[in-house]
Design brief:
By secondary structure, this protein is an all-alpha fold. The chain has helices spanning 12-25, 28-32, 40-58, 63-86, 94-118, 121-131, 139-157, 161-165.
Length: 193
């Protein structure tokens, strides 16, 4: 997918789909109950989580669907490019940072997609631990996020492709899969109950 940037003007459905990914990834519950770090990296990782679920759902469809997925992917990286520039990253450093983000996306997609395909919650939890919870491993939150991703994959699988391409993504409610408030924090505070 990387880097087909700036090929053509994206359609309204492509824009809506990308904005739906971002809106879902910004749900406050992910940063409170799921304890995803509320940082640039944490937010980037949650966009990847949702993008991977969608792109996996659309994989193997028609050429038109493949072009749609590529365009949504391109919008993602155009947005990352613009965000870096807004944060003051110099013009000479932006391409290197975007390239690193692309590599991060593909690495995470390679880790998450097989687990989603095989219903491997444990493997997905481990991958989330390595990528999102690196500074503060949290098995309870990792497992909850893995269950949420499985539910999201199931919800998008049940939707018609045309509906997805119009920007109507039926994400599950993340609060329904969130860890209990009194669940132990971190690996050293106890195991899942």
């Amino acid at each position: 997918m990387l880097f087909g940037l700036f090929r053509r003007r994206p359609s309204e459905g492509e824009h809506k789909t990308y904005y739906e990914i971002v809106a879902q990834a910004r749900q406050p519950v992910f940063y409170t109950d799921y304890r995803v770090p509320d940082t640039i990296d944490g937010r980037f990782d949650l966009i990847i989580v949702h993008a991977v679920v969608l792109f996996r759902r659309l994989a193997g469809e028609s050429k038109k669907v493949s072009e749609f997925s590529q365009s949504v992917f391109d919008l993602f990286f155009q947005d990352m490019d613009a965000s870096l520039r807004e944060m003051g990253v110099t013009d000479t450093r932006v391409p290197k940072k975007v390239k690193a983000m692309g590599e991060a996306f593909y690495g995470r997609a390679d880790a998450y997609a097989p687990c989603l395909a095989n219903g491997d919650v444990e493997g997905l939890s481990d991958a989330l631990s390595r990528n999102i919870y690196t500074d503060a491993p949290d098995p309870v939150a990792e497992r909850a996020l893995a269950h949420y991703m499985m539910a999201a994959a199931g919800a998008l699988a049940a939707q018609d492709t045309a509906e997805l391409m119009s920007g109507k993504l039926d994400w599950p409610d993340p609060a329904a899969f969130a860890p209990e408030e009194d669940a132990p924090l971190g690996r050293n505070d106890g195991q899942e109950q």
